[in-house]
Amino acid sequence: MDYHKPVLLDESVDLMSIRENGCYVDLTFGGGGHSREILNRLGPEGKLFGFDQDPDARQNILDDKRFTLIESNFRHLKRMLRFQGVGKVDGILGDFGISSHQVDEGSRGFSLRYDAPLDMRMNTEKPFSAKEVLNRYSENQLKDLFWRYGEIRAALPLSRAILKARPLETTFDLVAVAEKFAPRNKHGQFIAQVFQAIRIEVNEELKVIEEMLEQCPDSLKPGGRIVCISYHSLEDRLVKNFFRSGNFDGKAEKDFYGNLIRPLEPVTRKPIAPEATEINENPRARSAKLRAAELLTKDD
Fold first, then answer.
1. DSSP 167
2. Is the CA virtual torsion 255, 259, 262, 263 positive or negative?
């Protein structure tokens, strides 16, 4: 099955500082691109766990005794690792967002290019879809999610128009309503923001990232690393704030001696962006930002 090329492949895996016999987690297995590179750097006693909630990922399971696919949302990181008999790991990698496979599979409803049912579920076995959001949410609920997750200025009139157009059944139904509010010369960008907002709501994407990050200090060995690739400012802000301050508000707390109270030490002071060559070869990489942090030891 065709999945996207892994973004920032060498940069992300380099930052994990792979130990030959270490134990690692790929939170977003997808097509297995990052996982393959991690396995390339592991020795015969190394171990890799890949998380993916999308049933389609089963078709990409790697034939390697060192690899185990965990068919679960990565919000259950600690619990699922315990189920595998693992307490702490040496490194965690998360490549957020949706895969090219999910976008290109028109029936999934992620893309504005295809007329498809309003779905947008990353886990197709879950009942709650974009159709429920658009046809059941109140005007205020729609307005809030468009503003919060899409940063859409026309959130209120867009929400009112959706209520008048109900029931909405397909992606093209949604496009027909939303395009009336698109700024001049920004049609595609605006519709993409609308789709992004609904997708985040359906899959609780930001909440899932928060829950995972909060579990990382308990899931990493001292000196273990968490590496995250984000694709929009909402994701990146969560990662940046948690790495820097140990919370999602970005408010630094200090102890009596003036030392920052945080479990992780940022390894990347600024986000790493793809080179122009990678962006030309893989347009999906254009908005990617890579950050890494290390679990502090008691002596730090």
1. P
2. negative
CB 245, CB 298: distance < 8 Å: no
Residue 247 is assigned to a structural domain of this protein: yes
CATH for 221: 3.40.50.150
Residues 224, 164 within the same domain: no
Lowest-pLDDT range of 7-16, 49-58, 144-153, 171-180: 49-58
Per-residue pLDDT tens digits for 112-122: 788 999 999 98
One domain, residues 183 and 218: no
| Within-domain flag for 106 | no
Secondary structure of residue 286 in the 3-state scheme: helix
Q: What angle do CA 109, 111, 113 make, to 5 degrees?
A: 115
Terminal Cα distance for the chain, rounded: 45
**Which residue(s) pair with 155 in the sheet?**
none
For the ranges 109-123, 214-228, 283-297, the lowest mean pLDDT is seen at 109-123
The tokens describing 119, both together, are 């779905």
Is-contact 89 23, C-beta < 8 A?
Answer: yes
pLDDT higher than 80, residue 1: no
The range of the structural domain enclosing residue 197 comes to 111-203
Indicate if 20 and 65 belong to the same structural domain.
yes
CATH number reported for the structural domain that contains residue 125 in this entry: 1.10.150.170
pTM above 0.90, yes or no: yes
Residues 266-278 have pLDDT tens digits of: 999 999 999 999 9
Give just the sign of the alpha carbon dihedral 10, 16, 21, 26. Answer: negative
